[in-house]
Amino acid sequence: MVPALDARDVCLSFGPVHALKRLTLTAEEGRITALLGPNGAGKTSFIRCCTGLARPDSGSLTLFGEAPGSPAVLARIGLMPQATGAWSGVRAGELLRYLASLYADPHPVDDLIALLGIGPFEKTPYRRLSGGQQQAVNLAGAIVGRPGLVFLDEPTAGLDPRARRLTWDVVRGLRAAGVAVLLTTHDMTEAAELADRVHIVDMGEVRVSGTASELTVDGSLEDAYLRYTTGDAR
Ligand SMILES: Nc1ncnc2c1ncn2[C@@H]1O[C@H](COP(=O)(O)OP(=O)(O)OP(=O)(O)O)[C@@H](O)[C@H]1O
Asked: What is the CATH number of the domain that holds 4?
């Protein structure tokens, strides 16, 4: 079966900075795939390549067997970015209804608003929302189109414990519905809780991959992270 996401030897440079160096991984439907790695390791750059926002210099990258950014692919993916300043003035509910209108068979927006607790701030302009409230709207925006593959870039960064658990439940629900989830996080507990497969990335390449159990044979996931990453600036 063709994986939802198939990346082989993906390279991306910004001048002298090698953001991605032969990065290779797959993400399957009905699985949560976690990318761990230091600040600057290349995680967001990889997601930008997958979503058509950046073009790899070399390597092979396909989503559902097709090129990133193609209309067929864009209709089947969702993205929760780290920040979306572009949505500044629009009210949360309006934004979600607009995003829903772009898809043939969206989730009912009222259901998503209830699921993610957005109701109390549905009429608040996006720029006035708290960080955690923005995250909830961003997550709703990522899944409103019923994607088959969703990219969640640090979805729980800065969330309070209850909001974090709610997000975890939503992510598990996506997996149960057969969605391929690619998640980046700096939260080792989150990766251990959620991920079916973990890739530890450093300096643009995958250093080690495995299930959380496989990677924690000799210690915690944080131990594995520290063993396989340098934290060196490029
Ligand atoms: N548009 C750009 N122009 C120049 N350099 C860039 C650009 N985008 C990313 N980089 C560089 O590429 C490297 C990888 O950055 P990236 O944002 O992918 O890291 P990350 O793993 O997502 O980090 P974090 O965990 O801090 O979010 C960094 O050295 C960054 O400075």
From this structure: 3.40.50.300
